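Page 42, continued from yesterday. The earlier attempt failed because a stray header line got pasted into the input along with the sequence. Redoing it now with the clean sequence only.
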Amino acid sequence: MSADVTAAGFAAYLKCPTKAYLMAQGEKPPDTLFADIHGRISTAYKASARQRIRSGVLSVPPFDFALLADYPLRDGASLLVDCETASYACDRQSFGWEFSRTKTSKPNYVPILYSVFDKTDKSDDLLVCLGALAIAQVAGTEIPSIGKVIYGEELRGKTIRVADQMQKTQRVVEAITSVRYAPEPPPLILNKHCPTCDFQSRCRPLAVKGDNLSLLGAMTAKERAKCEKKGITTITQLSYGYRPRRRRRIKVTVARQSGWESSDNLDGNWRSRLEVDCR
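This time it went through. Structure tokens are written below.
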């Protein structure tokens, strides 16, 4: 098993720790439909973005991470490094916690991530920081201070300050390492990523068989943690804490009658008084 944390494994852990564990163990996904579709869309989007970058929309040329160590870069030049091909070796920490300055005569490597979606999330920022760590390790330089995310149809750019997300990125790398060498997979928890996951046909039957609480989509992680703290780990156990609703008491109302029909409903005392009056 390789000790390197790849960008694919890093992104998989951010979506689901179980998926990252299965990928690290080399298990092949039962279905790759969504992954293939996303891969084709991402490749086409990246090609279009790189073409516009070469045409002068962005002044810095793109670059592939695999050739970073062998690529000669003159002083003062800048180079975009694609974070999707990044790989960080956890057993070889050859970098320091020093960040490069924005104005320097040394080669300036800028980690970049291409996202076809119109909105970015926290995982994109962390992937850029992983690319910055890998650049410092492979190129033997300081950690780049900034990174970029190109996203959306209009190729909008977002600047990421690597120092702000570095501690969280390091924690995620350590968590991936611990999950990778664990004897058993992490607890199975279904989430919003499952409908487009390659391992859905594997994980969902196991969740149904185990009556997992994560099958309840409306239950948040906090509520699930509270239930597990009480010893409630299945939906059946959770159902015992609920009681059926009480039935509402319906009041029976008798319609009031008028005229001569009302005399039939009078009691015996009133009947006797009426008879006396008639005599």
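Notes: DSSP finds nine helices and six strands in the chain.
Reminder to self: strip header lines before submitting.
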